[in-house]
Design the sequence.
């Protein structure tokens, strides 16, 4: 069984979509990544930080999913990171209403002893200096390091971000961010430029339009499952990443062929995440449901054709 | 060998993209559909209208591709339909600069005798009254009728369009148009509503994001091939439709399984169309190149996964 360490936010989110509105609910990149990765036979641990206002029941829920929360520091006198956003009618774009960093502002990640020997490392979207601090605490380089990041760090901490990018194996990034990072409009060219920065594998997430995996001149595409209703896209990208690395860690196989399966699993899990508000769907999701939906992905994409 | 009749525009286009600009060059829906369908073993005929200004060499080029142009009426004293457009930097959106209907304004389509027994009928984007006039000239209902249309007719001739939609088997439409026609944002729901209007098969084109085929609760997805450079998207949708119906006509098989292959071929041919300005790439395209690119579509989409 693979050992997967995830660093990322554990947070409160307040979300407004055309379908409704929530108060502060459980959110954060590490939460979604963890819930998704925990769908596989893998030992999962989280490194994060929360405030004294964070309910024990949320940590208990993660523990009940076999997610080790030893690495989630609790700063009693602090407040948990809070994000609030409102989605536009098309659900493809959103406005950030509030970002209260709170305890995240001075976050000094500490990898717990039982995860310094992790063989899979997922660096969720965070300040690149925090991501680097985690890399530096793991004495034996993991078999695979996956990085998620966003345009905010390209704008505000590019040189630190580039140092992290040089050290990792897989970057997951959305299409606009890939264009910004590379200066190339074509995603094929963007992936080539990003390969040169370090990562052998480049995963470009296109939301409802699926995801592309680039590796040594090869490209593989996983569509998003067309859904009758998308309720709340929050966490879909993190859930995708969690399914991707969770599957790889559970199979201990980082070949390109297996990465294809991994992004199909990522897309599969993300398709559940958006069905309800926040983490609700991911909390109730069973492995049987995931396996059943795999069949839909096959029907969606597989064809028989004779090559002439 | 199937007999395929195409009705649509044969036109002059003047195109501006970030990569260059053309004078009046050969364009038109029927031109692109015909060039694409002619990649298959199928008897292709076009019904259209041009003016006295239309060069004989263009008609000769189509004839050299085994496209029967008997049904292309030449109005000596008239001018050929002219469209001019300018693409934005992302190539996904464009502004129409000029639309001179010219001979298209009074177009009264006449199906030539040698195509009244066609078994495949492609209704290219045109006034729905013209599309209906073609349907009415074919005594024995074709095995398959495919319709392409656009938002302009939804805005300006909706009731006539709905009459045509009720009579056809397959509609090809882009995502925004599917939403407009159905009043549903979700493409899954949009397809359901459109099925109820008549077509058993709904193909939703998403440009660089691929195409979806809906049929009796099933859905299949064909991605667009990620390209290093897209030079000119003009005609890509028509080329897609031409590849789709051309493949179906050549195989004489309208099962859902074969339609999957057909939209992969459509996507394949469209990926060539955008590589050069106007019809240039389609004019030089060989069947060997198309077959070779099929392998790329397989690599892009096919995976092996065990269902648990």
Sequence:
């Amino acid at each position: 069984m693979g050992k997967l360490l995830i660093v990322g936010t554990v947070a409160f989110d307040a979300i407004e979509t055309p379908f409704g509105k929530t108060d502060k609910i459980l959110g954060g990149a590490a939460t979604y990544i963890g819930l998704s990765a925990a769908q596989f036979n893998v030992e999962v641990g989280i490194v994060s930080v929360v405030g004294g206002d964070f309910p024990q029941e949320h940590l208990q829920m993660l523990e009940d999913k076999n997610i080790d929360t030893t690495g989630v520091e609790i700063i009693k006198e602090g407040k948990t990171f809070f994000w609030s956003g409102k989605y536009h009618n098309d659900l493809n774009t959103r406005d950030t209403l509030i970002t209260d960093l709170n305890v995240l502002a001075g976050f000094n990640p500490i990898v717990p002893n039982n995860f310094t020997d992790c063989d899979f490392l997922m660096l969720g979207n965070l300040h690149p200096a925090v991501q680097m601090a985690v890399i530096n605490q793991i004495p034996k380089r993991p078999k695979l390091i996956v990085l998620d990041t966003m345009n905010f760090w390209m704008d505000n901490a590019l040189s630190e971000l580039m140092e992290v990018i040089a050290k990792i194996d897989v970057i997951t990034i959305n299409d606009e961010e890939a264009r910004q990072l590379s200066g190339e409009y074509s995603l094929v060219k963007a992936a080539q430029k990003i390969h040169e920065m370090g990562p052998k594998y480049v995963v470009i997430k296109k939301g409802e339009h699926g995801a592309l995996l680039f590796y040594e001149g090869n490209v593989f595409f996983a569509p998003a499952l067309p859904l009758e209703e998308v309720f709340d896209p929050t966490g879909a990208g993190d859930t995708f990443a969690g399914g991707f690395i969770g599957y790889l860690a559970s199979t201990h196989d980082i070949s390109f062929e297996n990465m294809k399966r991994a992004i199909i699993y990522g897309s599969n899990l993300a398709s559940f995440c958006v069905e309800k508000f926040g983490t609700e769907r991911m909390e109730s999701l069973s492995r049987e449901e995931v396996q059943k939906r795999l069949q839909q992905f096959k029907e969606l994409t597989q064809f028989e054709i004779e090559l002439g």
Observations:
- The longest strand of chain B covers residues 42-51.
- Chain B touches chain A at residues 89-90, 185-189, 206, 209-210, 212, 218-221, 223, 226-230, 257, 260-261, 264, 287, 291, 294-295, 298-305, 307-308 (CB under 8 Å).
- The CA atoms of residues 78 and 200 of chain B lie 39 Å apart.
- Chain B has one domain: 2-301.
